[in-house]
Design a protein that fits this description.
The protein has 11 helices and 9 strands. It has a 5-stranded parallel beta sheet with strand order 7-6-5-8-9. Strands 2-1-3-4 form a 4-stranded parallel beta sheet. By secondary structure, it is an alpha/beta fold. The protein is globular.
C-alpha cells in the first residue's frame, strides 16, 4: 500500500500534492465500495479509532464515524460536554486516558487553533484534524477539491471563487492551500471586514463584488456566516449581507455560463444562499456530503498504513 508523507493529517499546509493525489485515487476506489450493495470492507478491522470532539459537529462527526464503520474499525466517540474536561482535566491528560485503552488513531475537533499540532508532538497515535478553531479543516478541503475534480476533470488552471466569511473560516484556509497545490486559480470574495489582512500573501485574488466573482469563476464555494465566532459586528445585519453577498438562482441564470455551486454546510438559507440556488442544478452540495465519506475512508486507510 502506498503511504502518505506524514503520520498525521494536521492540515493541508503540511502535505504534498502527491499526498493529495494519492488520497483522491484511494477515495475513487472507496466511492465504488460505498455505492455497492455491501458497503463494508475489512481494511481497518484491527484498528481502534476515537472521535474526540471538543466542539459541536454533526456532518463531520457522522461522516468520520460512517467512514470508520465502512472500513470495519472499532469506534469510540468522546464529547467534551459530557467529560472530565468540564472538571478541569487538561487536553493531554484526556487524550492519554483515551490512548491507555489501546486506541490507535484520534480524530479531533477543537476550538483552539493548533490543538492537534500540540498533541502530535506528545502522543504516538495518528491524529486527524477535524477542524481546529479558525485555522484548518483539511478533510473538508480534500472533499471539496475531490468534488471539483469529479465535476471538471482536474483542477489545473481552473478558476475557483471562495465567497463569504473568509476571516472566521477554517474551510477557506484549507481550501486555498489545497486548490493552489493542485494548480487552480483562487479568488476570495466577501465584505472587506470579513477578509483577513494577510490574505493576498497566500497568492489569491481579492474581489469585493460578488457578481464579478461569479462572472470570473467556474466554481463558487460559498461559506457560511459564522456568527458564533464573531465577537463584534462585522456587517450591519444578515439582511444587508444577503442583499449584497447572497447568491440566488436569478443571479446564476443571468451568467453567460454554467458554474458549479458548492457549500460546506450548514447552509444559512436566505443569507449566503437562497433555497432555489442551493437546490438548483448548479449545486453539488449533496455530492460533497457523499464524497466526504469516501475521502475520510481514504485518509483513515492511508494513515493506518503509515504506522504498519
Amino acid at each position: 500500500m502506498s503511504k502518505l508523507s506524514q503520520r498525521h493529517l494536521l492540515g493541508i499546509k503540511n502535505i504534498t500534492r502527491e499526498d493529495i493525489e494519492l488520497i483522491f485515487e484511494t477515495a475513487d476506489n472507496f466511492k465504488q465500495v460505498i455505492n455497492r450493495p455491501i458497503k463494508k470492507v475489512p481494511s481497518l478491522r484491527d484498528v481502534t479509532i476515537a472521535n474526540v470532539f471538543f466542539e459541536n459537529s454533526t456532518r463531520t462527526r457522522l461522516s468520520f464515524e460512517l467512514a470508520q464503520k465502512r472500513l470495519s474499525a472499532d469506534v469510540i466517540n468522546f464529547s467534551a460536554s459530557n467529560s472530565s474536561v468540564k472538571k478541569g482535566e487538561t487536553l493531554l491528560d484526556t487524550v492519554n486516558n483515551i490512548l491507555a485503552m489501546k486506541v490507535d488513531m484520534i480524530v479531533m475537533r477543537h476550538a483552539s487553533a493548533g490543538a492537534p499540532h500540540y498533541l502530535a508532538k506528545h502522543i504516538k497515535a495518528n491524529i486527524i484534524n477535524a477542524g481546529d478553531g479558525t485555522h484548518e479543516h483539511p478533510t473538508q478541503a480534500l472533499l471539496d477539491a475531490f468534488s471539483i475534480r469529479e465535476k471538471l476533470g482536474n483542477l489545473e488552471g481552473k478558476k475557483i471563487a471562495i465567497i463569504g466569511d473568509i476571516l472566521h473560516s477554517r474551510v477557506a484556509l484549507s481550501n486555498i492551500f489545497a486548490l493552489k497545490k493542485l494548480g487552480a486559480q483562487v479568488m476570495v470574495c466577501g465584505p472587506p471586514t470579513l477578509l483577513p489582512k494577510f490574505i493576498t500573501s497566500l497568492g489569491v485574488i481579492v474581489e469585493l463584488d460578488v457578481k464579478k466573482a461569479l462572472e470570473w469563476c467556474e466554481v463558487a464555494n460559498v461559506l457560511r456566516i459564522q456568527l458564533e465566532r464573531q465577537q463584534i459586528k462585522y456587517f450591519p445585519s444578515l439582511r444587508e449581507y444577503s442583499i449584497y453577498y447572497g447568491i440566488n438562482k436569478k443571479m446564476l441564470a443571468g451568467l453567460k455560463k454554467e458554474i458549479v455551486l458548492m457549500h460546506p454546510g450548514p447552509i444559512n438559507r436566505g443569507v449566503e444562499l437562497s433555497s432555489d440556488a442551493a437546490d438548483s442544478t448548479h449545486s453539488v452540495i449533496l455530492d460533497q456530503v457523499e464524497n466526504g465519506v469516501a475521502i475520510r475512508m481514504a485518509v483513515l486507510y492511508l494513515l493506518a498504513g503509515a504506522t504498519n
